[in-house]
Amino acid sequence: MNTYCTQLTQSPIQEITSVSSFIKHNRMNLPLYASKVSAGFPSPADDYIEKHLDLNDLVKNPASTFFVKVAGHALKDAGIYENDILIVDRSLPALPGKVVISVIDGQLMIKRIDKHSGKLYLMPTNTEFAPIEIKEEDDLHIWGVVTKVIHDM
What is the distance, to the nearest Å, from the Cα of residue 5 to the centroid of all Cα atoms in its chain? Predict the structure, then answer.
């Protein structure tokens, strides 16, 4: 039977852990400039630091957040690539359009959740992959909603 939930479930995969203890003990403040960088025409830069940005500020709910590394290319057209690090929040609702970490029939995956004509789907953004229709007999667990993507340039 389909168990559509947003709680972290038991899994043989042990690498996914809460980051709350890491955040409590590790602070990294880096400068955040008040000026935005132009992606179009260049503009004069201000040498003005607005504040220091703590990278821990990327995590809104430390007790329900974990990091996970991406394997595969199913969401490359959404800007999520192989070896990217995802920040995932288990406390957020898995609404249509959100990118989620899920387990379906024991297989861990990242897809965009969608609903059409009363049916639930896990959708890739790469056209080389097919959508996965979630049926009543599927064992689906939503582990969390992706809130941030960190990747190398």
Answer: 16
Pairing of strands 132-134, 140-150: unpaired
Residue with the two structure tokens 């007999």: 137
Domain of residue 92, CATH code: 2.10.109.10
DSSP assigned state of 18:
B
Domain residues for the domain of 115 are 1-19+60-153
3-state secondary structure of 22: helix
Tell me if 99 sits within 8 A of 109, measured CB to CB.
Answer: no
Distance in angstroms (rounded) separating the CA atoms of residues 35 and 14: 42
Residue 92: pLDDT band with limits 50, 70, 90: very high
Is residue 121 over pLDDT 80?
Answer: yes
